[in-house]
Amino acid sequence: MNKIRLFKAGEIYPRYMNNFYENEPDTVNLPYSGHLSKIMYDSFYWADFWKINLEKTGNFIVEEALPNNQILQKQWAKEHGIKFSEDNWFYDILDAQISEFKPDIFFTNEFQIKPEYKSTIKKKHSSIKLVIGWDGILRNDASLFQGCDIVLSCVQDSVDYYNANGFQGYYFIFGFEPEILNRIKIRKPIYDSTFVGSLYSWGHSQRLRLMAELSKKVPFKIWASSFAPPSMSGYLIEQLSRIRRGKFRDLLDVSRIRKDNQGEAFGLKMYQILSDSKITINSHIDFAGNKAANIRLFEATGVGTCLVTDWKDNLNDFFEIDKEVVAYKSIDECIEKVKYLLVHDSERHAIAKAGQERTHRDYNLEKRFSRFAEFLLSVL
Residue 212 above 90 pLDDT? Predict the structure, then answer.
């Protein structure tokens, strides 16, 4: 049987991209393959874990691309002699990459790729048999996925929505790539409790309130992005956004956290901080409802920190509460449990160890993608 060819048009967050090039400025001088490999090695989000794990099954060849990375894409075009217009470089280069690879499956989680493009991609590229999209934040909007045959989601409610609206939904739960442990230092924790993540002016009000209280009441360090830019103009724009949304209480919380913020942390830097933490805090986005779904559940447990996460009614489907992770239902309970765990070392160590073992056993990405590969084979 010929191997199935899957083209993954991945998303690279602009804030991460800027941060990466600030820290690795010489990367832009590398050839395309070395440039892409260096970004993937940093292990941000899915990195090249689709390629690694689908190809392990022996049935797939996967091509990774980052369509919104203008520097990288234009390097690919230069090396392949591809001409493009400056006002349409995004689609000109993406089309050239797809034409060269001739995939059977096109997957994207990049929302800059317009629905109109996805709805015509099979006509433009006749090799494509399946178009797959991704909804990881309960968008539940069929119009965004025109042209998609399948929509993946880490939230069962979204899977149900797409199944009921003309698509095939697939429940794609996040996981952990054990290779990350070979890319960071495994050492004695140096932080008592931490949070690493985003604090947008939308969707993170509950998270923001929690972080502000933790920073006042427990030994706590925070690496937050997307909420308080270092420039005064950027900071004021974010605060005005909160005022427009009526989030007046958030203003003081942001002001406090901004003073304590250690800066942004992505990729391997983020994993290193998690690994270096006795405890790390997880808080789902405001509109997640009562369903645990985010990637931090597996990132934190995967590197072996003790995870304290917001209680969800399906959390016990993933981890045994108080044995593999610790859950809280209120800010006060979170603070109380962090304080308790910091003075009960053996209990904290046992929870962290059990959580890591569970993630490595049940939620490693090789196992995740093995099941996903079986699904893809069944629908092609």
Answer: no
In the numeric block, the tokens 């099954």 are attached to: 57
Q: What is the largest CA-CA distance in the chain?
A: 62
User: HSE (CB half, 13 Å, CA atoms) of 210?
Assistant: 27
Whole-number Å distance between alpha carbons of 71 and 39: 12
Give the type of residue at 302.
Answer: G
Distance CA 325, CA 178 (A): 19
Which tops the pLDDT comparison, 240 or 34?
34
Whether 178-362 and 4-173+365-379 are alike in CATH topology: the answer is yes
CATH number for the 4-173+365-379 domain, one of 1.10.1140, 1.10.10, 3.40.50, 1.10.1740?
3.40.50
Question: Rounded to whole angstroms, how far apart are CA atoms 280 and 352?
Answer: 10
Q: Which fold has domain 178-362?
A: Rossmann fold (3.40.50)
Domain layout of the chain by residue ranges: 4-173+365-379, 178-362
End-to-end Cα spacing for the chain: 13
Q: Count of CB atoms within 10 A of residue 332's CB?
A: 11
- The structure's pTM equals 0.93
pLDDT 10s digits, 292-344: 989 999 999 999 999 999 999 999 999 999 999 999 999 999 999 999 999 99
Secondary structure of the chain as H, E, C letters: CCCEEEEEECCCCHHHHHHHHHHCHHHHHCCHHHHHHHHHHCCCCCCCHHHHHHHHCCCEEEEEECCCCHHHHHHHHHHCCCCCCHHHHHHHHHHHHHHHHCCCEEEECCCCCCHHHHHHHHHHCCCCCEEEEECCCCCCCHHHHCCCCEEEECCHHHHHHHHCCCCEEEECCCCECHHHHHCCCCCCCCEEEEEEEECCCCCCHHHHHHHHHHHHHCCCEEEEECCCCCCHHHHHHHHHHHHHCCCHHHHHHHHHHHHHECCCCCHHHHHHHHHCEEEEEECCCHHHCCCCCCCHHHHHHHHCCEEEEECCCCHHHHCCECCCEEEECCHHHHHHHHHHHHHCHHHHHHHHHHHHHHHHHHCEHHHHHHHHHHHHHHHC
Which tokens in the block code for residue 102? 């001739």
